[in-house]
């Protein structure tokens, strides 16, 4: 930034000793050091404020891109079937919706029993997986 060579620095020191004097030089250097420290603190504070604004702007831009991509994905992907089929889903393909309402399927008594073993739970899950067109669970 400031290109000060050795000869320029020597000239500044000589002029400072002549103008200020050797007795007041330590106090002048302390004062100059304090001013330089204050300027550095202010510049660091300003720089951190600018960096925070840039980070917030980048974050808002990333959130906007994420929302756009999420909307595009949601539009492109088909809707997943409902886990709880409605009465319309359970009707026969040829039946009209107003003429017949299918009754919900009843579960096996062994599933409702308090002492359910692993086999009966698997038997109860298999029809639901077949309705959703999922592969059977691994053994």
TrEMBL record:
InterPro entries linked to this entry: TatA/B/E (IPR003369), TatB (IPR018448)
Subcellular location: Cell membrane; Membrane
Entry keyword Membrane: yes
Main location: membrane
Keywords from the named record: Cell membrane, Membrane, Protein transport, Translocation, Transmembrane, Transmembrane helix, Transport
UniProt superkingdom: Bacteria
Family: Belongs to the TatB family.
HAMAP family linked: TatB
Protein name: Sec-independent protein translocase protein TatB
Organism: Novosphingobium guangzhouense
Primary gene name: tatB
């Amino acid at each position: 930034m400031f290109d000060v060579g050795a000869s320029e620095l020597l000239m500044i020191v000589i002029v400072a000793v002549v103008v200020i004097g050797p007795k007041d030089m330590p106090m002048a250097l302390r004062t100059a050091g304090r001013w330089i420290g204050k300027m550095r603190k202010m510049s660091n504070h300003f720089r951190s404020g600018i960096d925070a604004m840039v980070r917030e702007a980048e974050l808002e831009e990333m959130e906007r891109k994420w929302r756009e991509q999420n909307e595009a994905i949601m539009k492109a992907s088909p809707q997943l079937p409902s886990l709880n089929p409605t009465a319309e889903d359970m009707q026969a393909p040829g039946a009209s919706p107003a003429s017949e309402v299918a009754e919900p399927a009843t579960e096996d008594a062994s599933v409702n029993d308090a002492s359910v073993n692993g086999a009966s739970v698997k038997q109860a899950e298999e029809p639901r997986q077949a309705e959703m067109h999922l592969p059977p669970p691994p053994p």
